[in-house]
Amino acid sequence: MTKTQPVIEVQHVCKTYFMEGGNSQSVLKDINFSVNSGEFVAIMGPSGSGKSTLMNILGCLDKPTSGTYILNGQDVSTKDDIALAKIRGQTIGFVFQNFNLMMKRTIADNVSLPLVYQNINERTRYKRAIEMLNRVNLKGYQSRLPSQISGGMQQRVAIARALINNPAIIFADEPTGNLDSKTSDEIMELFTTLNKQGITIVLVTHEDDVADYATRMIKISDGHKVYDGLRKEYSKEKDKPC
Ligand SMILES: Nc1ncnc2c1ncn2[C@@H]1O[C@H](COP(=O)(O)OP(=O)(O)OP(=O)(O)O)[C@@H](O)[C@H]1O
Ligand SMILES: [Mg+2]
User: Which CATH number fits domain 37-63+78-236: 3.30.365.10, 3.40.50.300, 3.30.1330.10, 3.40.190.10?
Assistant: First the structure.
């Protein structure tokens, strides 16, 4: 795939949550953008503005109420849960704020978990896990439990797990939210290295220092996209529905 092809196309995406008792909340309102292969995008915006809702749609963990989401040229907005799980396994790596590791399983088991669902044998899974741990600078840690390593290392394990299917895109929802600033920088440097290796990165952050690692910034406010452009050209005065 060339650098200029869109891997993500979001067209008129809206998301409404319907609650018990007939209440509903419109959270994403006519969101439009595309992301080319190889981009590094930071999604920002106030708490409750809809960032995680958008990320969950982008990461095929949820579907839009209306509008179209095209991932790698495929319309995924109407796929069922089984099809979405398959697409997630083939194309996407997802990294969460709280790492989402299995605390009673070894680091190697955590990293190789996505391969279990593909019926890949244990020996191959272990070999692939070791390769991914090398890639995130955690050589030799495969037999430890998550509780025996630091928070930053746990996030590296989560990134290794996200990498194991060789994804074209990594989505990360506040991946540094639970880390101190030095460890955050290390994690962001790792994302930068992966981006230079050709992986498209889309991450949510509240922190300006973290967003500065991205080249492009998309800002969401009250469900509307209010900025979409170069991160270094962003200034608050430019916020307006776009
Ligand atoms: N599953 C859900 N059901 C109902 N409402 C939801 C659901 N998930 C999120 N919301 C609501 O949608 C709005 C946007 O939530 P979202 O989690 O996307 O915000 P956010 O920008 O990620 O916030 P934060 O920065 O605090 O993580 C909030 O008002 C939230 O309460
Ligand atoms: Mg959120």
Answer: 3.40.50.300
- Read off the pLDDT of residues 156-194 as tens digits, 9 standing for 90 and up: 999 999 999 999 999 999 999 999 999 999 999 999 999
Q: What's the CA gap between 31 and 54, in Å, rounded?
A: 9
Distance CA 74, CA 60 (A): 12
Instruction: Look at ligand 1, atom 25, and give the residue with the nearest C-alpha.
Output: 47
Best mutation site among 20, 23, 26, 51 for ligand 1 pocket (most ligand atoms within 8 Å of CB):
51
What is the C-alpha separation between 102 and 119, in angstroms, rounded? 19
pLDDT digits (tens, 9 = 90+) for 104-133: 999 999 999 999 888 899 999 999 999 999
Tokens coding 143: 């037999």
Does the pTM of the predicted model rise above 0.90? Answer: yes
Q: What is the mean pLDDT of the chain?
A: 93
